[in-house]
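Lecture notes, unit on protein representations.

Consider one protein chain, 109 amino acids long.
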Amino acid sequence: MTLLEKILTELQDLNSKLEKIKSAEKGGFPRMMDGKANLSTTEAMELLGIGRNKLLELVHANAIPHIKNGSRYLFPVDQLFDWLSGRAAENYIKEDESEDIEKMFKTIS
């Protein structure tokens, strides 16, 4: 299998996972990944692209949605996506803030 074929296969797999998420959203059901409503620590790490230590730091600070199940943590997919959306929205500059930034640059120039 060539590199291009591997990439195509990966993209098709990701696309099918996205379709599952979209169809779950339309039906009013909680979002799921690979048929699961909750992710393990390892799965959450992979989804978020962060390491175990950072994930556990967020858990202990109660900064990320999670469920403690004995000594394990579970991460509800639906709430995790909402949390991600909220975090991403925090990074956008609001319109009135961008106007203030433009004024700052004009005074500096």
